[in-house]
């Protein structure tokens, strides 16, 4: 059958008129969560995968129902069952590719011009998910009425595409439907090959089951073979996915990490290298400001942003002086941690001391913390250090009460719990 005939008579072209604009709109709502790396852009673009796979599964079910209703499989066997299915599903497969490409195009601008390309493993796995739904839809369409098969695939495909990601328990299910990497990635993390493998194997199970039904002759034999192939792949996929839990990322190859400068040493990923001079200049300037009040900045600094702002670099440099985790004494039932109240004022004071502007901190931190830190900045350097030392102890020791009032914190001999 001619492709033009399939496009006119099948559901794929009509579905595209609704699906592609909807995918572009949905993708635009999600672009704020990406960072300017191809891994992040490609992974985040798959957030619409549940819509694409559900629509393609419904289209495949519709096509199979048409073939069953027309008794095409009972005609003289000029074409094999597999060839018939393949020819009728080509437009639907193209619809899936187009949908994924449209979502990627919307997410791509932040990564344009940077090193690398869209992640082929993510894209290939996403399209396998679409093909898996098409295989399931085609099998259902051969057995169920046209409207019922399409409705079941549209509803069931949507639920399977998004429901596992909402589960607190059995979080590993998200790695079977393609949403395991939906929240990836950071500069030092990349998509987990194990997560992608679990997704691919599960989808291949659906495809293998459909192939068994189409290629084998005896009804009992093909049904048993189809179920055996699917269950074997599903079990393998679950074995890969269960240890992952929520996390669909893995550490990035550290050989791409490069450090430059000294006092402090600034370490950057390839995407950050075009802005290396800005990172080094602002981090060095922040370190000098911190030393002016008697603080020793971190010897090595890493940054999470790709395209830096001077205030952001200085803030990150200064924040390296604060603990990244609460102390052990703050953990456990009934634990009391008064030092938590000191974190925001300390963070803001360090950022301002390093040269960040108050405007860059507004909206990120409470205005009370910003006003307090600015008040502390008006004191003599020894008094500022006394305030900082007292409240920093409260971050490390649950027995120490923070003292945000700079006059009290700087009082001689203060610092007792």
TrEMBL record:
This protein's record includes keyword Membrane: yes
Name listed for the protein in its UniProt record: DUF7224 domain-containing protein
Annotated ranges, domain DUF7224: 266-398
A Pfam family of this chain: DUF7224
Organism listed in the record: Streptomyces desertarenae
Ranges annotated as spanning the membrane: 12-29, 89-109, 121-140, 147-166, 196-216, 228-246
Keyword annotations from UniProtKB, A to Z: Membrane, Transmembrane, Transmembrane helix
Source superkingdom: Bacteria
């Amino acid at each position: 059958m001619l492709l033009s005939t399939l496009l006119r008579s099948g559901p794929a072209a009509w579905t595209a008129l609704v699906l592609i604009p909807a995918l572009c709109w949905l993708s635009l709502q999600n672009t704020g969560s990406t960072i300017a790396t191809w891994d992040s852009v490609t992974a985040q673009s798959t957030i619409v995968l549940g819509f694409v796979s559900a629509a393609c599964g419904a289209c495949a079910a519709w096509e199979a129902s048409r073939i069953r209703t027309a008794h095409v499989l009972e005609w003289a066997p000029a074409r094999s069952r597999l060839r018939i299915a393949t020819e009728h599903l080509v437009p639907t497969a193209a619809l899936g590719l187009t949908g994924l490409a449209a979502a990627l195009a919307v997410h791509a601008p932040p990564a344009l011009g940077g090193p690398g390309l869209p992640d082929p493993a993510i894209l290939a796995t996403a399209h396998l998910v679409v093909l898996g739904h098409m295989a399931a839809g085609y099998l259902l369409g051969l057995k169920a009425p046209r409207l019922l098969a399409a409705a079941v695939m549209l509803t069931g495909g949507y639920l399977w595409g998004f429901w596992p990601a909402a589960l607190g328990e059995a979080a590993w299910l998200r790695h079977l439907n393609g949403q395991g990497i939906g929240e990836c990635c950071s500069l030092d993390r990349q998509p987990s090959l194990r997560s992608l493998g679990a997704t691919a194997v599960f989808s291949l199970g659906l495809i293998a089951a459909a192939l068994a039904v189409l290629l084998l002759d005896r009804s009992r034999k093909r049904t048993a073979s189809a179920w055996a192939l699917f269950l074997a792949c599903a079990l393998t996929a679950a074995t890969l996915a269960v240890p992952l839990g929520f996390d669909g990322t893995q550490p990035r190859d550290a050989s791409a990490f490069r450090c430059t400068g000294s006092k402090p040493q600034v370490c950057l990923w390839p995407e950050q290298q075009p802005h290396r001079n800005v990172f080094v200049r602002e981090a060095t300037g922040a370190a000098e400001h911190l030393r002016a009040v008697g603080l020793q900045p971190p010897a090595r600094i890493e940054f999470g942003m790709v395209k830096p702002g001077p205030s952001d670099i200085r803030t990150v440099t200064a924040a390296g002086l604060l603990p990244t985790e609460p102390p052990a004494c703050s953990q456990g039932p009934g634990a009391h941690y008064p030092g938590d109240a000191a974190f925001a004022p300390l963070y803001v004071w360090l950022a301002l001391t390093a040269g960040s502007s108050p405007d860059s901190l507004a909206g990120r931190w409470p205005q009370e913390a910003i006003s307090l830190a600015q008040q502390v900045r008006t004191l003599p350097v020894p008094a500022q250090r006394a305030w900082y030392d007292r409240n920093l102890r409260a971050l490390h020791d649950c027995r120490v009460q923070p003292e945000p009032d700079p006059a009290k914190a700087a009082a001689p001999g203060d610092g007792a719990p």
